[in-house]
Amino acid sequence: MDANPPGALAALIDALRALPGVGPKSAARMAYHLLQRDRAGAEKLGATLGHALSSLRHCKRCNNFSESDICPTCANPRREQKLLAVVEMPVDLNMLESTQSYNGLYFVLMGRLSPLDGIGPREISMDKLLGRALDGVVEEVVLATNFTPEGEATAHMLGERLREKGLKVTRLARGVPLGGELEYVDPGTIAQAFRERRQV
Amino acid sequence: MDANPPGALAALIDALRALPGVGPKSAARMAYHLLQRDRAGAEKLGATLGHALSSLRHCKRCNNFSESDICPTCANPRREQKLLAVVEMPVDLNMLESTQSYNGLYFVLMGRLSPLDGIGPREISMDKLLGRALDGVVEEVVLATNFTPEGEATAHMLGERLREKGLKVTRLARGVPLGGELEYVDPGTIAQAFRERRQV
Questions:
Q1: Residue A146 has what DSSP assignment?
Q2: What is the pTM of this model?
Q3: Nearest CB partner across the interface for B49, out of A6, A19, A45
Q4: How much is the pLDDT for A186?
């Protein structure tokens, strides 16, 4: 066989597989696309990768990606310093911000407990969270991890650790979503909404 | 809102969207993964991108990616010089090679006709193919584009242009695949297999 891809191409295809969800066929398709149809995009990708790797660090307070030691959100004195919401990923933080209904601070775990993937308490920066939550100013920690099995397990474990330190720990409410029709909501959600029904 | 992603992160997410099939949500997920869980992979990706962009060119004969002016396949004197198979992409060439049933040469279009995506005869290097096929040595051109509507249209157009230059033009056979059960093969394929039935 003399049809193996040239070395530089094979190396690029292999490197693209570092992207989550990208297998050998997608990686080959991506490499051909970049080299054949979008060399400018490929150059931009290479440059921004290098810049991101060298300039981004984790905010010392909230653990989110930041270009400074303390990110703008944590440095904002107008935010409620007593409230700390714990989220899995930066996208979750952005989603909470977009609701304009929360003015406290954040801690970003950058993941969720997932023992099968080798992601334990250390990988989600639990010690950094405990240090942050026990700064003497925070009074309430709002667990805002996802309502998936892994997100729930993460919230459960963090809740135990934070409560034993004497902090007030809350969790986002579960229930029927706005606009939800009971016919199309899953039974588990409805059962939960029944148990947590509120007087009106 | 002071929760916008820092500039270097936003630029990386934007650049990742150059990859085919990657929208804003996947791009964000990829960026977080690279920065948080696989910085070594990110550095390798940046380096291989740069190396591929600077070292890969198109083989002057077959148009495939190559690190030399003439790729090893085209430079191989043991290959049948009278036969030229036309494929859409390098992966198709690799697939044909893996069958070990073809010993001629290749031409890689690096695409297929797709007017809606702005891919016409010029983008698939038709002039380069005509020059290659009319070198006086090639006697038969085997059209091995995919059997999709776009691949068929590409084969049809190329076949017309090559035949009018006096070349013998063939197309890979269509029919029931090996191991195919008629019950599960689509009716169009069976109709084709009927029309092109062979005496045994």
A1: -
A2: 0.75
A3: A45
A4: 81
